[in-house]
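Incident review: delayed structure delivery

Summary: a single-chain prediction request sat in the queue longer than the usual turnaround. Root cause was a stuck worker, restarted by the on-call engineer. No data loss occurred. The affected request and its eventual output are reproduced below so the record is complete for anyone auditing the incident later.

Affected input:
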Amino acid sequence: MAADERIKVIFKRIFVKDDADWFGSGEFFFIASVDGKPVGEPGRTFDAVEGQWINLPAAKWSAVVNVQSKTEVVIRFKGKDEDVFFDDDLGPEMVHRLRKPWKQQDWEYKTEYYVLKFSVELAIEGSFGHHAPNEVFACRENAGSTNCSTVSGTNIVARMEIHPVFPVPSDAPVPAGATPIFPPRPAFPAGTSPAKYNPKNAGTTVNPGDPINIIPNPPVIPILTAAEANLNTAARIEYTYYHPDSLAFTDDDSRLEWSASPTGGGAVRFLGSPRGLKVMVYGTTAGAVRLDVRFRGALFATYRAIVMPLKRIPCRFNILNGPTGPPASRPRSTPANIQDHLAIANRFLRQLGLELVLDTNTTVKDGAVATAIPGIFRISVPAGRTRNIPPGSPPIATRLNYRLGVMNFAYVHSGISAGGGTLLGRATDIPANGAGLSIQDSGTPSTSWILPTGVAPDAAAVTQTMNLFPAKLRPGHPQLFAMFVTDANGDPGNVAFQREYANTIVHEFGHNLGLRHRVGAGHDGLLHPPGENLMHGTNPGTLAQDFDIIQARAVHLSPIVPP
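Output delivered after worker restart:
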């Protein structure tokens, strides 16, 4: 909605100091104009009694002026006393000039005969009246900030951000000579109040029973029907920062108005009112989309995402039990534990518009035995197939009981890294991604706000190129997609460790889909954000929780994802 930059001039009342007549009361009449247009009641006279007030009807004695393109509004007022032969002037004409910044104020004008009381009110959300002094009247976009004026005439430099990375990277100043990881912000006047940060910026604690959409600011907005879209399924888009905190925005603040622009053919609908610090949206048409937030008519923040249909990927889990030992060679995870791990993993994969669903096909091989949970099996194996699985060639463990085109997860006791350390898990069978060995993304703001971000006052965004994994498929098994998970993730029934299992599943599954490390060995060439991306080589799931737009583009081109 366009900014409502209107002011209202109200001539309120007149105190009669001198009635200008020898006998009895005077007969005053008044001539007024606002911005060159007459105001008042032509031909009406008022009984002027010394020491008393003349109240002017507000409906007749007020005028509204749209000041969006004005720098000055002139107010004129003149009083006269009606007489038989000549009308007497009641003092000089008032010529009052209002200039920007517009502000609400009560005024007084005096002559020898009367005192005029008049006021100026500003429209806030369509309503005139006396508003709180710090209420913002109008805003203008300016190099990464919004310059606002309050109803008291004070100027405020304001800014809002919707960072696509959760947890949000640190915006603390970097040491001299170091590469910035956060786009620059405009200079704020000294003495202004501090910024307000979204309390979720520290990360999201995910539990198996949480809503599937618990991770905010996903790169993919899922296409849903109106019946499917609700508070637990639509995408959550939330502010991450605004300045100054004295603006005191609320989650459903009517001052913040959201709209959607189909920058790449995508279309969305808002679930509930498109107002405030947080909104919920669901997709209706596939393609890129930009969400804009306006404050008093000025563009305040933007968020870019891709609208895609949800893709459900069939999978099965095989628990590989070796001999009881010693040494132990059986994973501790139960089928119920695996269900919890999968539930948490899907809450992270929702960012990509993906969901792993347990295979309902009951076909088994390699000695697999179905459990009470469809899609989860147990297989008795020699110790060497589940304990200390070595690096190098794909292990037998991950091809056991697989079905063509179905993602195959093996829960094993332990594995060894190339450096001799303990493994949490490993993707072993990776098909060629449909994009090839790299993929590009162009758009503003840039994916993960990689500098230059296009978020003013930063420079315009540039095309980003991300490197992908080449195919790693064992001979004779072109449709085997597989990975293993080890006991090194911790107690599988403890919710804190369940998050580690889920993080390992999602991270290694990302490799299956063609994603390289964002930071770490064999990285994808982007190296940003520094620690928050789920494909970080070593960071735990309490920090590495995010996927971005370019990764979303890539994974949907994997043959693992149904067309």
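Verification: The first strand starts at residue 6 and ends at 16.
Action items: add queue-age alerting; document worker restart procedure.
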